[in-house]
Amino acid sequence: MTIYAIAIATNLEKAKHLQLCLDTFKTWGSCQVSSIYEIPCRDRVGADYWNAACLLESTMPFDDVISALKHLESDAGRKRPSHSISLDVDLIAWGDTFQNMQFNPKKLPLADDVVIPLAEIWQDERLKRITHDFKRFNLSQMNSN
Prior knowledge:
The chain is built from three helices and seven strands, in the order E-H-E-E-E-H-E-E-H-E. The protein is an alpha+beta fold.
């Protein structure tokens, strides 16, 4: 069993794409999902994003998870480059226990829109606490936003 820490972002048909993502993750293993945070586009060009994080416990091998995440983005209609993002899913860290989690060096340093939801569900000294006033809601409120 491996724990995968995954960052999720969408700013296009947000409820639809986030639900697709989370439904798919549930078929891969056991999920713990953060609240959803509405956070402005990093470069202030695109629409506000819904950002969330998931801790996925799965028997899927690492390479299969990487491939499946790319397919999930593609299935959601992800276009690159673009500021209209149907779905952006990134593998942030993985390990067999929380104490042995290793961060994906390609994702460092972690952006605030990754850290905020991830730190909610994973208490780790390497995840800095960020003070913010971004709108926060849970899955049951998702479709009403």
